[in-house]
Specification:
With 146 residues, the protein is mostly helical. It has 7 helices and no strands. The N and C termini lie far apart (50 Å). The relative contact order is 0.12. The model has no long low-confidence stretch (mean pLDDT 86).
């Protein structure tokens, strides 16, 4: 990140985790679950490869994408060591690093830690509320026998 000139930037914190192995594995397994007969019938109807992905594969993957988004967001949101190494300015610190700064050698600022923690869970809560319908839909889709 230093050679590219991205130290002390949010892109340096986000980009290395964009191709997460868990995400690759989860999406590969999800794509393998799509029946070949469905894809072949769409090809016979004249669908291109992009149309196969956009109109058939992607809509069936939405629950898995929502689950993956929640998992990866939580993983990045609570990251501590890598952002601590990459980020140098106090204004750029992530919430876990900022919370660790509130623990002093002589005094622990419990009031400030509680307020910061309460504010820090708001984005996680909003993301889960927004993606909950897709998450529940993915759980329920496997429970019905067809």
């Amino acid at each position: 990140m230093t050679q590219v000139g991205w130290t002390n930037s949010y892109i340096a914190v986000i980009l290395p985790w964009a191709a997460n192995p868990l995400g690759i594995f989860l999406m590969r397994q999800n794509m393998k679950a799509i029946p070949d007969a469905l894809l072949e019938s769409a090809r016979m109807d004249g669908a291109t490869e992009f149309q196969l992905y956009y109109k058939i594969a992607l809509p069936t993957m939405i629950p898995s994408l929502a689950a993956l988004a929640i998992i990866l967001f939580l993983n990045q949101w609570q990251a501590f060591l890598y952002p601590l190494v990459i980020l140098q300015e106090e204004a750029m610190f992530t919430i876990p690093i900022a919370l660790a700064q509130l623990v002093g050698q002589q005094r622990v600022y419990f009031d400030q830690i509680m307020v910061a923690t309460s504010l820090g869970i708001i984005p996680i809560f909003l993301m889960f509320i927004f993606l909950q319908q897709y998450f529940i839909k993915g759980i329920l889709s496997g429970s019905v026998k067809q």
